[in-house]
Amino acid sequence: MSADKLKFPSCRDGSADSSAGGRPVLSLAPMQDVTDLAFMRVMKHFGGPDYFVTEYFRVHPDSAPEKKILRSITENETGIPIFAQMIGMDIPSLVRTSKFLLERDILGMDINLGCPAPTVCRKDAGGGLLRNLDQVDRILGAMRDVCSEAGKLFTVKTRIGYEDEKEFDKILAVFKKHDIDALAIHGRTVKEKYQTPVHDEHVRQAVQEMKCPVMANGNIVNVSTGRSYHDKTDAAGLMIGRGAIRSPWIFQQLKASFTGEVAVTPSRRDLHEYVTVLFAELAVEWIGYDEAKHVNKMKKYMIYIAQGLDAAFEYEIRRVRCEKEFFRICDHYLLNDDLLPDLPPENSKLFCGFSALLE
Predict the structure, then answer these.
(1) Minimal CA–CA distance to 46: which of 236, 216, 235, 276?
(2) What is the pLDDT, as a whole number, of residue 287?
(3) pLDDT in tens, 78-120
(4) What's the rounded Cα separation, in Å, for the pair 147 and 198?
């Protein structure tokens, strides 16, 4: 899909583009070592978002685009448009990598200003760049130029500050200087990681002050939290990450809630299908199937999927070592028609603070 085909509804004047059916645009948030080509295929299988963003390409003077991440662009047959995301702070390297990626079938480039990983921040990349707004200013200018030359979109994913939410005014002032095509805001600071409620008032501030569409990100775990985040911010779109790992039906459910269509109400048996499809798709990514490594890869997804289900299920699935035992446990706990809980537990490190959106 070309750049002019993806439109964002204008929430400020009440109009909306028909490409999103008069509803907010929905995106799968980029998550490193999660949102690869296999996971994108799985999301598409269960409905899928309006667009994808790749895992971030690590960019520095000696870097080359990682082949595994590049496959999510060059071998992507989902039909869902995609942005390529980069992380780094060296402008010549960012421009060089952008020129390479912009020759591929992508909507445009996205720059990561939000990753809270300590190893990333120590290199003044991702969320660490929010401590150096002069460099952010220069990066945005260079990225706008290279994307404009290619006739492609340029988007930004950010947090609201590094140490403190009070930093957001200065961050927003830098963004307002540039012709950004869309701004995705994870409504927490870098230091807050994923452990607090989102500061929806700052997302709303950006909606009111930025000329470009704003995507609200963070703590969307079901339809109610997504609808509430949208109501509180008036954002043009919603970006969903960990909530989509837990429930791949969330995109279809949100679309249905805005358009009046019938929404999926998944059962444990449906969850068993999701786990089976995910297992199979991830297995395709291995060159020479390694059972132990594959089961361990699945366990990284299962810690999200198991949230709110039987404590025994989570305990057993975390300790499984082989494919046969993995599916024996899934069969035991999931092959029934009990409906899945709508919300995950809020007292875990994986899902925290979402109830504030429902107040």
Answers:
(1) 276
(2) 64
(3) 999 999 999 999 999 999 999 999 999 999 999 999 999 999 9
(4) 31
Q: What is the pLDDT at residue 41? A: 97
Clarify whether residues 24 and 126 are in a common domain.
yes
- Give the closest residue to 239 by CA, choosing from 77, 105, 52: 52
Write out residues in the chain with pLDDT < 70, as ranges.
Answer: 1-21, 286-287
CATH number at residue 43: 3.20.20.70
What local confidence, expressed as pLDDT, does residue 22 receive? 76
Instruction: Provide the pLDDT for residue 33.
Output: 92
- Number of H helices and E strands in the chain, helices first, is 14, 8
Beta bridge partners of 339: 267
- Per-residue pLDDT at 323: 96
Q: Cβ–Cβ contacts within 10 Å for residue 169, how many?
A: 13
The separation between CA 304 and the C-alpha centre of its own chain, rounded to angstroms, equals 15
17: containing domain: 3-259
What confidence score (pLDDT) does residue 96 get?
98
Q: Which pairs with CB-CB distance under 8 Å and at least 24 residues apart come from 92-100? A: 92/61, 93/59, 93/60, 93/61, 93/63, 94/59, 94/139, 94/142, 94/143, 95/142, 95/143, 95/146, 97/57, 97/59, 97/63, 97/65, 98/143, 98/146, 98/147, 98/150, 99/146, 99/150, 100/65
Same domain (yes/no): 153, 281: no
Give CA–CA dist 353/58, Å, rounded. 30
Same structural domain, 222 and 324:
no
Residue 348 included in any domain: no
Strand, helix or coil for residue 154: strand
Are 308 and 214 members of one domain?
A: no
Strands (E) across 22-107 are located at 25-28, 52-58, 82-87
Residue 218: partners with Cβ closer than 8 Å, 6 or more residues away = 186, 187, 188, 194, 198
Dump the DSSP string for 242-255: HHHHH-TTHHHHHH
Report d(CA 139, CA 90) in Å as an integer. 8
Determine, yes or no, domain membership for 346.
Answer: no
Domain count, the chain: 2
